[in-house]
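Sample entry (383 residues):
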Amino acid sequence: MRALTYDGPYRVSVRNKPDPKIEHPQDGIVRVTTAAICGSDLHLLHGLVPDTRIGFTFGHEFTGIVEELGPGAQGVQKGDRVMLPFQIFCGGCYFCTRGLTSCCDSTNPATDAATGIYGYSHTMGGYDGGQAEYVRVPFIGVDAEKIPDDVEDLDALPITDAFSTGYQGAEMCGLEGGETVLVLGCGPVGLFAMWSAWAMGAGRVIAVDHVDYRLEFARNWFGVETLNFKELDLVTTVKGMTEGRGADATIEAVGCEAAGSPVHRVLGVYGKLEAGSPQAINFAIHATRKGGTISLIGGYGPPFNGVDIGTFMNKAQTMRTGQASVKRYMPHLLEHVQAGRIQPRKVFTHRLPLEQASLGYHTFAQKRDGCIKVALFPNGTLH
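Predicted structure, serialized as tokens:
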């Protein structure tokens, strides 16, 4: 099969690889119809995730058709159109039975730092991802979600990660209605967090980025207020917009490659002396009011970085975080799509055949050509 492969920091290509095989009775093989490049894939591309091995296939957002099933797989049939949560989970462990599928104990037992994730290094279990023609899907009968006939693949695709992550980010704010919500980052996850905050009753949503076309995209799609943090003092400005207090809740949707601090960029992104730049977390701490909530959904790797924990503690703030337990959100988000409340496919500004994945990665990473998110098509048919 053809599959994207990692050739080292800043380099990916599409090569021939062996077709995946059934390795466990509950496995399935899925023929990929669409795959997405996620912002967190860029952390892999840039060499920031430990134990990312040469020849590894990225891709944790994908949809496809069930082609083959192991003898123990139940709940799906050959030919079913499915989408897969980005985590791999067993459905029966302590955490899965409590809805915390992102904390599954069974699919990455070598560490308690994370569950298994498609295409996200051997730190996350070493499972090849979906930026390929075919992918092995462990626990397919538990993990897979069937796509309704009236939902397009590109509307389902963001639900596998970006939409669900943004939705959980807003949910963790604990909104009761009328709050001012600050969203750091106008990438796909931040955009879906903005929509979700409105849907949960926010009275005001303020979006922050430093790329003008991303700020414009957020304004046009969701009617949010926007701030370019490179053109102003972000904390002072946000407090000035909120009677001196700060936002009631802040969603940090940026992660470990945050701009805004040359020192932390050098230490965390280029020198790898800390687990990425903590600048977005620190912006959140200072721009959120006392007693407010910070929802941390930006991606970080272990073990530590320079978070301003003292200010956080003294402001009596609450921080909630975690990888999204995608499976529990899928039916609800599908209902929003089917009701016409949102068209997630609008986030895909670029649609490319799999063979042009390297171009897609570099266009996305360098924020060229108005790129918000890239969809890849292994069969070469763009739709």
